[in-house]
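name: query_chain
kind: protein
chains: 1
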Amino acid sequence: MTLAPRPPTRLATVAAVSFALCATPPAPEDPRPALRFVPGVPDDVRHLALTTWDRFLDTFPRRWACLADLNLATAWQLPDRGIYEPERRLVTVRIPATAGHLSATLVHEFGHHLDATCHEMAELRGAVLRAEGLPPDRPWRRGRWECAPAELFAEAVVWAVLGAREHRPSLPISPSLPLLIRAWGAGKPVAPPTAQGSFSQGLAARTREGDR
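structure:
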């Protein structure tokens, strides 16, 4: 003989409703790309890197969806102040370093990470070339360090994130370029202002000096 299930009592129904109302809803997923650390990164570097990463993300609030998570490592011996490996999505920075130099190095490499992982960068690359008076078919990553537009872009990202008070670019960059980068990061059109040609003029000047 099969017994029909008894309907829930009023007390049980109230308890179930109360539990449902009091249950903690799942936390929303953080949309910000993550910065992760390789084992062995010192605590003070982690703190500075996270603060710098937040400032970097705040400069590109409309581009988080196309920016991949990033890994960070430190090394006591490194040929350069920082290296970005796109296939591993890994930035390695040389320590020890002053906080100012380390922040600038981090943002420079973060800029390379943005360039390598964000599919929306094609629009900005063309605008950067036009703003700096460079031909549209100029190779983005080839050539000497000081001649590659990718390095020019990374230095301009440092200026856009840290500001002129905290960073002095090591390449001749038009003052309009950080503004262009911030506008793109905010999701605005990137039609560049009249090209000032700082990069091409500065490079030509240094070439002439080297020929003397």
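note: The chain has seven helices and four strands.
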